[in-house]
Amino acid sequence: MTRPVVGIIGNSYLLHDDYPVHAGGTMNSEAVACVADAVPLLVPADPNYLSVEELLEVCDGFVLTGGRPNVHPEEYGEAPTEAHGAFDRARDAITLPLVRACVERGQPFLAICRGFQEVNVAMGGTLHPEIRELPGRLNHRMPPDGTLEEKFALRHEVTFTENGPFHRLMGAQVVRTNTLHGQGILRPGKRVVIDGTAPDGTPEALYIEGAPGFSLGVQWHPEYNAACDPVSRPLFDAFGAAARAWAEGARPGRLRRA
Questions:
Q1: What is the per-residue pLDDT across 213-250, written as a single tens digit (0 to 9) for each?
Q2: Cα–Cα distance between 201 and 137 in angstroms, integer?
């Protein structure tokens, strides 16, 4: 059986300080290939090279990855400040309309970290540039030192809405996750349902109310150790099943809010 094709949104980097590249973490490809059982296809997220319409035709689903650059605050009506960090306007130009198109069509996507924030902005929501500055919030940023294992270590609990999509998917209402982000959702966008939060109230899991297809997002990084992690594996399993159904021509009916 032919595997579905999953577009993995790439990020722009400079290699050796002066050679521009589009790149994606190997762990994203591994999670898509080995857990979701799909063909990983790295997407150069730049409208100079491709269109959203072409992506929708080529791919059966999408992983909106994490990345160092942030969604530009002009996309949610605010002026940029130093706290907002670096930006990737080309990626914004692809991912924000891509999210809206997938929601409308029912085409599956799994949003991770920056992707989680992109979904919220695409649906009209806002972000806070530095969650740790809010009263009572934890520092959710990646530890600056240590091994990869230490940086991606499980650091806090996430509590899901009882009987919501994530609770049903995980088989547990409380799980432990890693955390490697500075920004976070301030005001949820239209139809964005926050289905999981950290102990400090930071939004950690979302879905789109009434979306006809798989439309889940998480603020943590489930691609790390996805095959073995009891939280990551069911997420990629379910996403892979949705991508296969799309590839086989199934068009899901509308979902009801949990």
A1: 999 999 999 999 999 999 999 999 999 999 999 999 98
A2: 8
